[in-house]
Amino acid sequence: MKVVIASDSFKGSATSLEVATAIERGILKADKNVKFVKFPVSDGGEGLIEVIESLSGYTKKTIIVNDPLFNKIQASYASNTDTAFIEMAAASGLPLVPMNKRNPLNTTTFGTGELIKDALENGAKKLVIGIGGSATNDGGIGMLCALGAKFYDSDNNELSPIGKSLNLISKVDFSSFYKNLKDVEISVACDVDNPLCGENGASYIYGPQKGADEETVEFLDKSLKKFSKVVCKEKEALEAGSGAAGGLGFALKAFLNAELKSGIELVLSAIGFEEAVSDADLVITGEGKIDGQSKRGKVPVGVAKLAKKFNVPVIALAGDIGKGTESLYDLGIDGIVSTTSRAMPLEEAMKHSLELTEDEAFRLWKILQIQLKH
Hints:
Layout: E1 2-7, H1 16-30, E2 35-40, H2 48-53, E3 59-66, E4 72-79, E5 83-87, H3 89-92, H4 110-121, E6 126-130, H5 141-146, E7 150-152, E8 171-173, E9 185-189, H6 202-206, H7 214-230, H8 234-237, H9 248-256, E10 259-261, H10 263-271, H11 273-277, E11 282-290, H12 299-308, E12 314-321, E13 335-338, H13 346-351, H14 353-373
Parallel strand pairs: 1-2, 1-11, 5-6, 6-9, 9-10, 11-12, 12-13
Antiparallel strand pairs: 3-4, 4-5, 7-8
Helix pairs in contact: 1-14
């Protein structure tokens, strides 16, 4: 029997591959004859580079970039001869900013632009950019500045590419912008459909989790709208996904001609998941918490949709099962089970997530064996 395991990481406690290996160990305790194919998986956000680096032919390159507050840090991307995978969170992610300094007025995507520039200068002809987990709301001007753009106020003073500068921009200079982008294919792993501005835009929906208070949210929303007018990209600002990563989605689409795609679909294609699942008997997937929001581009549903092309049953394991999971059964998931075997504090469940996952995989397989016998 062939089982394909493709789980997301359990955030804060275990990597994708660690979860898959724990599931494998549990099943092997119950049945030594099962054959496994394990895939590390990411939806394009945190963990993307780890997943791609594990593939044959890809290597990780680490460079010095600016973090969201312009501190020098090390950040990495993964590439082969012509394709580079970039995780914006590595350079511009929220965890890089201390809690007491989180304020999207002061943060920048400049470091993400530095990763993009380095990949281009090293010969990348295709870029896949994951834009989840940002600390920013700068409309992507930081990224654009790293690639050579300059932004000026009404007195012709060059502006720092941070959120609070957006409202001051009156002139843009792209004369030194990176020249060879027309020859580069750019795909953006993005699973949100927010426009740039408005009640469902970048600032109102995601600003508060980045440290913005009500007044800041309103200011940034108006600033992004003004910026889109200054650069004559009001149409692009209305498009789905432009509000991703504080407007980085907008800048990538409007200025780099990038195409926004499902993150999990991009990753599954890159790792060769479809070929492996085509002759599988069962697929096991999972994530730390599964709920109704998992249908919005999360790993379990992306895995299930592809498995259903071949009528392969799918079971999802999760540390926590939230509300709204009923809708997931219509999207290809056949069963959902919790790895938590008893009532326990979240900290304990996270600390022991791998052994709990292994134990649940054992119990799950024992139940499946009843069906297999008949």
